[in-house]
Every structure is written in C-alpha cells, then in structure tokens.
Write a structure and sequence with these properties.
Number of strands: 9
Low-confidence stretches: none
Mean pLDDT: 89
Strand order of the largest sheet: 4-7-6-5
Structural class: alpha+beta
Strand content: 15-25%
Amino acid sequence: MVYLSLWENPETRIARLVEVTGLPYAYVHRLIRRIEERGAIVNISGHVKLIDKRTLLHIWAEDKRRILSIVRPFRIELLPYSVRDAVLFSGTAGMWVLGKTATPAGGILYIKESDLEDVIKARNPEGYPFLLYFYSDLFFKWTVERRGFKLPSPGLLLADILAQGEYSRHFEELCDMLVG
C-alpha cells in the first residue's frame, strides 16, 4: 500500500503514508529508506518526493512477486463481463482490457470482501481462470475505467504485469501509454 500511496501522491510525508496505509511507522520508514537507496525517491527530513517512477515500478514488482508467491489466491472461472462492476482487472486481465492480449486467462482480479458473494454467484465453468485477491478499500480509491471495466491505478497495474512476468516485453509500451 505504501507503493500505491507514493505513486498516487508523488510528494508526501512519511507520517502521511503511515496515516493513509495504517502500517507501523518503523515499517514504512524502512521501506522508504530501501526505495531511496535504489534512487526512486528523495527523502529529506520525512518529506518524500518521487523522482523516478520506472525505478519505483521495478522495486514494487519485486515485492509483488514475493507477495504473489506467498499469498495463495482464490482461483475461479469467470466470464469477465459478469463481474466487471465488482472487481479490478490487473496483470494479464488488465492487459486484456487494454487490448494487449487475446485472453484475460490467468489475470489478477482485486476484490473487496463484501463483493465476494456476488463474484461466487457469477462463477462459470466455461469462463476464464482468474486469480482473485482480497484488498483494502485503498486499492479501490484510485481506479481507471476502460471499455466498461475497472482497472487499478496505472502503477499497480504495471507492477502486477512485471510481477507476473509473462508480458514484460509490453512493459515499455504500456508504461508510455499509462504513465506518459
């Protein structure tokens, strides 16, 4: 959540990141120092400024890769149109929404726990397999809509694409398209 908050608020304070994410100060400060060592941000007396979005994306993707290998998702077969109001399409599924892949199969769907029942009802054995992850409301605060589907923040989408590693060849093109 620190990465997402940094992405969406490129100039902020560590105290604000702690407040927004609800994470312990020591953890956030340690993460900020690590990101600063890699050259993505500058931290002056607790005031943080994002200076290199691409470097931040690569650090974020490394952490996402570790998280995705530890946290086991809920696997479910769905037709994308049946759940587009309840989930955020990310990773391969996000690339499908953007027209970069032929199928959303294996993509990441972010969901709020309150929407789980609706998604379970939409299960379809003829649908595409998705990886379903529960996330906090913070992830749903910054969304983008394309073709009637909701995508997460461009930073999270790009980090997931890199973390899944399947389509990293499209990363530069997507980064230019989504970030500018």
